[in-house]
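User: Predict the complex with NDP.
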Amino acid sequence: MTARILEGKDFSARIKDEARAAVAQLKADGITPGLTVIIVGDNPASQVYVRNKHKTCEELGIRSDVIALPEDSTKDQLLDTIDRLNADPAVNGILVQLPLPSAIKSHEQEILERIDPLKDVDGFHPFNVGKLVTGAPTLVPCTPAGCVKMLDLAGIDIDGKRAVIIGRSNIVGKPMLHLLMARHATVTVCHSHTKPLGEVTREADILVAAMGRAKFVTADMVKPGATVIDVGINRIAPKKLVGDVDFDSVKEIAGAITPVPGGVGLLTVSMLMQNVVTATRLQLGRH
Ligand code: NDP
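Assistant: Here is the predicted structure with NDP placed in the model:
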């Protein structure tokens, strides 16, 4: 039996519809949510991501600004820009596009922590991370939030399920742990020291692969009928992207699976739009 394919575009459209309606509601109250993205340097992939965010904002009626700083910008120039945006009431969301150029990369944490937590639409500020861990309403990193939202929209139950996450990064693995635990899954987080990995992953009703290793997860690592969410994006040739899951073999055993490309990646931008709405509401004291 072949797995149900969880197409990102279907879920992404539904998430955007929700965000569009929320934006319209805010506009009816005289408030236009605004996102400002700061991009430093000329990384081509980052430029594509930023253009995509700008386009999606425009599509949903969110005011969108992009501040492009030169490659040789200093840490202080970036911090000054963030301070100015923090003080601007027309800016509801601030996002610093990563990765930063190598000269200021080591200051990434300080830079991200300078963003007002109420405007931190990436959900990377320690204040928001702390709120996520304690279960308070907050701004949550877009990719893991999108995965959970997709499970809900697909009608896949999380409560009481055994979830296994491969990867423990701050932007995917760790927030995913807290989101799934908050939804009453029993969660195991694997990483490069987990032994033997396949034995742990085979216990999963919901398996999330976020490791950055092309086609690493093979059919023998998956429990029959499991839901497999592939967060990985790996470029194996100039025009060929694959996930962390060996899609062709795993789809023959899984119950549901996300493709790459065309899966989780599409949800990330839609969830960013949701976060701009959430940030605006939080700044208004609404939840
Ligand atoms: P990181 O490199 O920060 O983290 C990778 C994690 O995978 C680490 O915890 C690492 O373990 C673990 N890992 C690596 N190799 C193995 C292995 N052989 N066995 C078990 N665990 C392993 O990656 P990110 O979390 O930032 O991203 C993961 C993937 O998701 C990437 O492909 C990235 O491109 C993609 N991504 C996609 C997004 C989207 O929008 N769809 C958004 C963000 C990321 P350890 O901690 O021990 O080193």
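The chain has a mean pLDDT of 97.
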